Amino acid sequence: MKPVKVGICGLGTVGGGTFNVLQRNAAEIARRAGRGIDVAQIATRHLNPACNIGVTPTTDDVFDVVNNPEIDIVVELIGGYTLAKDVVMGAIANGKHVVTANKALIAVHGNEIFAAASEKGVMVAFEASVAGGIPIIKALREGLAANQIEWVAGIINGTGNFILTEMRDKGRTFEDVLAEAQALGYAESDPTFDVEGIDAAHKLTILASIAFGIPLQFDKAYTEGITKLTTADVNYAEALGYRIKHLGVARRMGNGVELRVHPTLIPADRLLANVNGVMNAVMVNGDAVGSTLYYGAGAGAEPTASAVVADIIDVVRTLTTDPNNRVPHLAFQADALSDLPVLSVEDVETAYYLRLQAKDRPGVLAKVATILSERGINIESIMQKEAEEQDGLVPIILLTHRVQERDMNVAIAALEALDEIAGPLMRVRVEQLN
């Protein structure tokens, strides 16, 4: 059977890994796909020294690949929104299938892209856009298709997880570990997307859409970063039997869907709490299967290439399939997506970790307890530490029972207004993941 021709746009870390895996495992891949897969052209501005591209044609214009009539599948690995979108939409317009690892593109423009692909009868595959080499999209879309998914929770940004792991294990400051993460190449020179949760929110948006059958709605995801966390918070959480993770949570509720990324206290004995370093993990809870966990490398050349090449194989397998009988892009048929709304974070109900810096005066704890009690917030546990030498302030650490976020916001405003409380209060949400 005639080999399938692939064009790769971008020969950076992931593009280079994809090329190398396709070359190294060509025979095994052909056995799985049922026909050969040849890289017919590569678009790149800089050759990757890790790749021996041999006689493979190259160009510095991605649209040479998009418009190449010999190419069946365009692999977009350049990243970003603008040029990548033009490449993907151009490939679709030319009747070519697309494979991409671009989570930002899918999260923000996926609805438009999938509509165009459906109209042209082509596939857009994007397994590598979430959690690198972990096949979480395939698991949600196909392996768990019998289930009503109740919730998804995941550590889906390795940079943030590396920082929090180092803070916990070695007592280092956020700033110190971030500098190392940048030196190691885990974080960009501008680390905003990683440490502020934007990268994780892109990925969570995709997971939620596939889990619950709703349109992609990145603009409605609540995002909170880890920049305000201190080593003290990490240690206090540990003393209370918890670990802090930068978690993405998507949960189906009766009146809508929760879609949120933020630092989270998780009981130390939970599997997710023990995912360390740059590793990723996603836990999915379905009504039939219960809880399942997917763990592995969330980034890197060949782990991500593993997912890209798997998508290429999937596309090859379905080239002759009736487009109406293919697995839908977002798991549910396009005309059957739900209008279940994404909830405001104020509607979310969780337990909370609160850290206050109090002046060393009698009766402070009583005032704090009264404010919480008057707003129906019950305290589960409380720790009061010795006054700190440098400022004489007493750290007070509370764990509350579950309460709606809007009620907690009112209570926090009242606590911060107390004369005895210095500076803003630290709040971290708590998830039991039962």
Total beta strands: 17
Could you give a short account of the major beta sheet? Answer: 11 strands, mixed
Strand percent estimate: 15-25%
Structural class by helix and strand composition: alpha/beta
Counted by DSSP, the helix tally is 14
Using the coordinates shown, work out and report the CATH topology of the largest domain: Rossmann fold
Helix content: 25-40%
CATH H level of the largest domain: which superfamily?
Answer: NAD(P)-binding Rossmann-like Domain
**At CATH's second level, what is the architecture of the largest domain?**
3-Layer(aba) Sandwich
Write down the CATH class of the largest domain: Alpha Beta
Mean pLDDT score, rounded? Answer: 95
Spatial separation of the terminal alpha carbons: 50 Å
Domains, number: 3
- Our Rg estimate from Cα atoms comes to 24 Å
- In the predicted model, the low-confidence regions spanning at least 5 consecutive residues are none
Task: State the shape.
Answer: elongated
Family: Belongs to the homoserine dehydrogenase family.
Protein name: Homoserine dehydrogenase
EC number: 1.1.1.3
Pathway: Amino-acid biosynthesis; L-methionine biosynthesis via de novo pathway; L-homoserine from L-aspartate: step 3/3; Amino-acid biosynthesis; L-threonine biosynthesis; L-threonine from L-aspartate: step 3/5
